[in-house]
Amino acid sequence: MSLTTLLILIGAVVLVVVLIVALMAKQYRKVGPNEVLIISGGGKRTITDPDGTKHEVGYRMRIGGGALVWPLTESYQILPLDVYTLDLQVPDVLTAHGIQIAAQGQAQVKISSDESSIRMASEQFLGRGGEGIKDVAGQILEGHMRAALGSMTVEQLFQQRGAFSEKVRQSATSDFSRMGLQILSFSLKDFSDKQGYIEALGKPRIAQARGEAAVAEAEAERDATVKAAAARKESDIAKFKAEAEIAEANRDYELKRAEFSALVNTKKAQADLSYEIERQKMNQALKKEEYAVKLVEKENAIKIEEKEIVRKEKELESTVKKQADARKYQIISETDANAYKLAEEAKGKAAGIRLYGNSEAEAMKAKAAAYAEYNQAAIYQMMISVLPELAKAISEPLSKVDKIIMIDSGNGGSGASKITKQVTEVLAQLPTVVESLSGVDLNKMLQKFTQSGEKPKDGEKK
Questions:
Q1: Containing domain of residue 60, as a range?
Q2: Which of 119, 172, 426, 447 is in Cβ range 3.0-4.6 Å of 144 for a Cys bridge?
Q3: Structural domain ending residue among the three candidates 79, 114, 143
Q4: Is residue 430 part of a domain?
Q5: pTM as predicted
């Protein structure tokens, strides 16, 4: 067998299996808990009734759940187990006294849940659905209602509605059980007649009830009036008594309140006083503790300060004193060296001064001899030669001025001309200054010089 043929066979087998599974899944039927799955076909089955009778049926059933329905050989139907409400109308029925009435009732019926009842119901109602069940059950109950109404009077219907409902239920139960049904409840809703019997039946009672009601109403009004007056009297007495009791209670309350307030205030004052005393005691104790702490802190600070002083003394001794001693020794050494140096320098300077003084003395002697030989013209010449030096000395401070700001006051003349004028005025005062210092009158000297017509010698400075 070739590989291709083998693969084809395997594929065919798989396809058949898939089709079979799909077909079985499609044929698997499920119903809810309020439904019965009836599966017909597939052979005969033997069942046993509640009375022990055995017989064969050609179907199987599943109450809720699911079952597989074989194709071609089996079919399925669903039988509902729902509760059906029946509104019953029974017109024109005669009672035990021949009174024609119409009655309305209501019942709830369903298929019984045991297998025997379900088999009987499926044999009679399968395919008819819920409407078929309601139709058959309604007709049966209407018949039993007519039978029960014919056996009772109108008065009994008024007084014994429960007995009527129980009578209908008991008479219909046997019929329902033969069809697999059960009555869950039944009640007579209402009944009426067209001749006015029911209305007439109630009129004497209504009149009696009305008379009794009027008498009762009058008596009630009388009793109510008496009772109201007595009640008002009792109410007023109770009110005044209550007001008196309230006033008395208020008085007692105010007295108690005043006593309690006084007691509370006294206790509060005592508590405040005790609190203040305790607070003062605590403050005093706290201050003592603070003083003790401060004393300890001061003692510790003094100890620390003493240790600091000792440390600083040691530090000064190790730094300042030793450095001062070293500096002192250095200064003494330097002073001795400087003194020796100054002494030697003084000796040198004294010798130099003596030599300089001797040379100056010799120069002065020579200068005095030369002055003795000078005539008056030479003295004049010397005096005149000194004047430019004096003018230079007077004007020299102006050369050291960095900046001159000239302000024109509007009195005529520029700032520069004022400066030269002031310098000229200072120079014009020189003869007076020289005369006051040396006793020499430069003006007279110049006049004598010009009158004598004597000229300076050649080689002398003009």
A1: 23-79
A2: 172
A3: 79
A4: yes
A5: 0.42
Asked whether residue 428 is domain-assigned, the answer is yes
**228 part of a folded domain:** no
Q: Which of 137, 163, 195 marks a domain boundary? A: 195
HEC assignment per residue over the chain: CCHHHHHHHHHHHHHHHHHHHHHHHHHEEEEEEEEEEEEEEEEEEEEECCCCCEEEEEEEEEEEEEEECCCCCEEEEEEECCCEEEEEEEEEEECCCCCEEEEEEEEEEEECCCHHHHHHHHHHHCCCHHHHHHHHHHHHHHHHHHHHHHCCCHHHHHHCHHHHHHHHHHHHHHHHHHCCEEEEEEEEEEEEECCCHHHHHHHHHHHHHHHHHHHHHHHHHHHHHHHHHHHHHHHHHHHHHHHHHHHHHHHHHHHHHHHHHHHHHHHHHHHHHHHHHHHHHHHHHHHHHHHHHHHHHHHHHHHHHHHHHHHHHHHHHHHHHHHHHHHHHHHHHHHHHHHHHHHHHHHHHHHHHHHHHHHHHHHHHHHHHHHHHCCHHHHHHHHHHHHHHHHHHHHHHHHCCCCCCCCCCCCCCCHHHHHHHHHHHHHHCHHHHHHHHHCCCHHHHHHHHHHHCCCCCCCCCC
Q: Are both 120 and 149 inside the same structural domain? A: yes
| Tally of structural domains, the chain | 3
Q: Is the pLDDT of residue 287 over 80?
A: yes
- Confidence label for 373 from pLDDT (cuts 50, 70 and 90): low
State the pLDDT confidence band at 227, using cuts at 50, 70 and 90: confident
